[in-house]
Structure formats: C-alpha cells, structure tokens
C-alpha cells in the first residue's frame, strides 16, 4: 500500500534557502574558529589514542571462537555459520573427536576453521545462527596483514581472539 | 452412490470426493489427493506394522440406521452422509472403503500429531548440530509442522547407548532412535539377514544387533537411507559434509549391468556420497554397499589429469593437440589390419557409436571389449560387472563381447597387430594382457581415468573422464535404456571419452561437428534401428525399456510378488 507523505509547506523566506545556509555555516565556522583558537579538540590521535574505551557493548568486530569455563571448545562444526555467511568467508572441515578424548561424547569438532577476514563483512549472522554459543563478534577492529594468507584467521588464531567465555549454556553436561 | 467402475471406491478426502482402487491404503490415497500424511514407520516397500502412530487420521463412514429407522439418503452428488468416528485410525495400514471420509486436518488429527511429536521428542537428545541427518530428518521437519517448540518434560532424559558400531559401515545412536522399526523390517524382509531387533520395554526400548552378530551384509547402508532420523548413520559419510551444501545429480551406477539408479551428492566438485534413487523397474529403493562406496578413487591420488606422450622411456606432459597428432601420424603409417581397437563395455552408447565410426575410418582389423564376469548375488548385483554390455552388442555390433580377445592377443604375439587403441580399459589388470605382450607393440594408446599398468606402458596416454564426469546412455541387463548425467568436472585437462574419440576421428582427417552429447545421441538414434525415434529428453530420469533381453533383476521380481500378495504397497 502506498503511503502519501505530506511534504511541509515552506514559507517564502524558507524557500530562499539562504537562512538555512547561513545558520549551517555559522555552526561550521564556530567549530573552525574554536579549533583555530585551540579552544576545542575534535581529532583523535589514532593509533596513539584508540576507540576501545568508547566501543559500545553491541560493537561488531572480528568474529572469533570461544572456549567455555570447562575448557571445552564450543564449536561442534555444524557448519551453520558457513551456510549463513553472506560473503562466504567461513570454511569448516569437521572431524570426529577420538574416543579417548575427554569430550568424546560430543563426537564432533572442527578440524579446520578458517575465516577469511578480507571477505568478512562483520554482519554478525554467524553469532546469531550459532546453536552452540561458540562464535562471537569481538571488539577487535584493526584486522591487518601484509598478505592474503595472513588475513585468513585459522582455528588457533580464532581461539586466541575469542578467549574463554563464561556463563554459557552447559548443553553437553553429564545428565544430558 | 454415484456410478463407479467395479474396482474403484468413492472416498472423501478433506471434503473432496476422489476415486481409488479397492485395497488402496489411506496414506497412499491421501498422498494422491495432495494431502501428505506425516509418517515414520510406513515405507511403501516394507510391511506396515503401524507402530509410530504419526499417521493417525480422522475417518468416517455412512451412519448405520437403528432397526426400523429410515436409512440415510444420498445427496445430489450421489454420496451418503458421513458420520465421523471420534477415534482416529492409522492411515498406513487401513484401506479405503466405499463412501469413506478422511480428514487430514482438524482438531482430532492435528491433536494426535502434536501428541505423538511431544512423546517422541521427550527423550530426544536434540543434538542436531552434530547429527548427520540434520537437514533431511523427518523428525526435524515434523517438529516444525506439528511440534510445540518447547518441551514440557522436566525429568531426566533416558540414557541409551550412543555411537555404537552395529556393523562395519553403520553407526547407531539409540537416543535418536524413534522405534519405527524400518531397519529391522528391511534386514528381515529385503536383505534376508535379520540381525536387528528391539530389546527392553517402554521408554527404555533400544534397537540392538543380535549378540555375536553384526549388520554386515552388502545392503546394510540402505538402513541408513530409510532411517527417518539420525539413529543409523553411515561410517563413510559420517561428519563429511552437511546435506544442505550438496548438489544432487541423478545418474546411474556403473559397477554392474543392473545400473542402479542413484543420486550423486557433490559440493565444490567433490563427491561426498552416493545414494540409491527410486526406480521400481531397476533397483526399487536400494543399492549394494560395495557399489555405493566405490567412488572415493574419483578424487584420488592416481587420477590422470594431463595428456602424456612417451619419450626416452618416460612420460612427459603434452598438449591435447600434440598427443592427438602423434597418434594420428602413427596410425596413418599402419594398415587397418595392423590396428586393434579395445573399447570398453563401461563406455556409453554414444561413445561406442563414435568408436564404431573410428573403427570404420581406420579400417581396424579387430574391435573388442574386455568382459568382466563375477557372481550374481541374487538381489541387485548382476553377474556381468560391465554396465553396458547390451550397448556393446547393439551399437558396436559385437555378438559375444570378449570372445575375440584371445585373437587380439595371438595377433600381437605373432606380430600381425602392431598398434592397439585401448579406450577406457585396463588391459593388463582386467584384460589379461601381459606387459611383455604389450611391449611387443609398435604403438599403444591408452585412455583411462586412473594411472594403471596399461597407461604406464602406453606411448600416448589420454586422461578420460570417469562415470561421474560424463553424460550418456547405457542399456542395463534387462534392456532398459538409462541416462548417465555429469555430476562433477574431471580434473585438469580431462576430456569425456566421446570427446576423445571425436578428436581422434578429426585428427585422422574425418571431420565431424559434434559438440554435445545430445547431438551425438540424435545421430545415434537416426542410425541404429533400435534407437529410432528416441530423443534425449524422452529417456528421462527413470529410463525406458528399449529391448527385451529376457533377463530379470531378482530383487525386483521378489518385490513384485510381495506387492501382488498385498504385503507392501510397492
């Protein structure tokens, strides 16, 4: 259904645009002179100063894998993040957990887990789709490298960024 | 009652009247009417024990008048009114009756489904993220349609054995099992190896293998296909790939003359699994494990990917043009009687058709194929392990394939045959040609997907695509023409065998402009009388009966008997 938007009826002096232009210019020039007279500072001296302290909780930085308070890698290689990833940045190769492993009952884990950070668009769908609370977008935003290969985060690097996360659902406890 | 044919009965499904033959199961009648009834234990190829209770539907019959009361009168459409029965019945094991009414929706039916789903999920481990069945699991599908979305079960779930090896190829997870008994019935009724069964009672019931036995018969992986949940999974496919990533290609199996219809699952040019595809005239719903698992060599180490020519005792990579030109030069210097062409009964009709042209063009004195004979297993494996022996007879015109091989061998021995074109065959290992014998040849051309002793001896080696990398048609043991479809691309410079033969013909000066396998099929159809009037599209996914060979497939014959006896729907 089409919605008809009522446009505001402008007065004749508003139609001239000059008053709007002048009031805008006044703000700009106000900042200009404040900075010129060193009364105010708007530039952050990156990288000496960083955004880190100002980042909101919902900030979406580099995706990373986490281990839980029992030291278990949360990811079970279900490949749902690989499926949902819009730029296809994620590649997972699953493997079976050997019978002698402490977490053999989980049966499956990633043998390789790679996120191509050149492709990643930081959308957060991987975190949203994960049924195991294994992948989270952290606050790391300065992802750089000098080669394409360096920009591919492997499993080891992903766990480094992710670290330990506590307070997650304990789905694979003994009672289950 | 409206006028009906004697063997048809009127049935009302969801308010619409339909006609079905007597003896039709309610579930099949509903399916044909477009109202799919959810089910777990019912399988058209197995008997119906009716133990999952998922297919409960509400039914009704015309009311029976009390003594002395007026009998019900038909309405203007000729049907009697239906009085609905408050107790639901299972749709899988009951048959239609005249003037019957079925409701596949409504409070009773839907309430039953929700109740059954809640019971099934009460003890379910909900480990979909690690379960191989996820994505093709009926428990998942029906819980979306009929589930509650949350569990009211607050007690501890029953613990059952997990990750149990019930056989060399099948893994069992008892917590996922929903006791449908499909696998038990399959091993009992189809595979004649009844090793599975239920033990214990109530919610502690577990599927187990008989003590001291294992599910090891050559049809065991079919239980994985028919398992509606992830209780039985394939060791070979375990954790290899999630099913939603894979592309499905309908093609046929080439490990024996039965030509089981299969679906190849691949992702990013790699085949992950092969499963049987229903064709009631060829393989029903089944296929042997030995054939199903024979695909891992396709992306193996020993695949040939480049044309090669022999120089100074070793092979070096060459371009197609160079390899073909070298072959053409050599053949031009020999007379036709000095050349033998060994084709393969694993080639498609189209390839054999071009081989026939090549043979005529060079006037080759000998043309033969390598026979492969084994033992029939009395189910789906044919004694003839070549998939297209009937095609060889029909298209290449060899009366009894394989009978002339000894003649070729003695010809080489005596020096009458100086060159052999070995197309898609392994002469040393399968044809019984000794390396010393082949060493006497002036020239040996070998095309094959894999490096083998024959290609090791060959002067020119051409990489030919394997069965999963080519399209074409084959004729199975019962004379059915079936289509092979390309599932993946061959590695490197591989070409499909029909392209190789076409290029050889062109290199020898016989120009022809064939650029697709369908075009080639049309030429074949116009020249070989049995194929007259056929088109590529006409063959379809299930194939068509082309010739009568008088041979039958034992498993299919038994299924027909079981269907005639009313044991199964078929």
Account of the protein in words:
The complex is a heterodimer of chains A (176) and B (570). Chain A is α+β, with helices and mostly antiparallel strands and 176 residues long. Chain A is built from five helices and five strands; from the N terminus they run H-H-E-H-E-E-H-E-E-H. In chain A, the strands form two sheets. Chain A has a three-stranded antiparallel β-sheet. In chain A, strands 1-4 form a two-stranded antiparallel sheet. In chain A, 23% of the residues are buried. The model of chain A has no long low-confidence stretch (mean pLDDT 92). Chain B has 570 residues and is an alpha+beta fold. Chain B has three domains: 8-105, Ubiquitin-like (UB roll); 157-299, Alpha-Beta Plaits (2-Layer Sandwich), CATH 3.30.70.20; 308-555, Rossmann fold, CATH 3.40.50.740. In chain B, a hairpin with an 8-residue loop joins strand 12 and strand 13 (261-267). In chain B, helix 2 (107-122) crosses helix 3 (138-146), helix 8 crosses helix 9 and helix 8 runs parallel beside helix 13. The two termini of chain B are 30 Å apart. The interface between A and B is medium-sized, with 18 and 15 residues.
Key traits:
heterodimer; A: 176 residues; alpha+beta; Alpha-Beta Plaits; 2 domains; 3-stranded antiparallel sheet; 5 helices; B: 570 residues; Ubiquitin-like (UB roll); Rossmann fold; 3 domains; 6-stranded mixed sheet; 16 helices; 24 strands; 18% strand
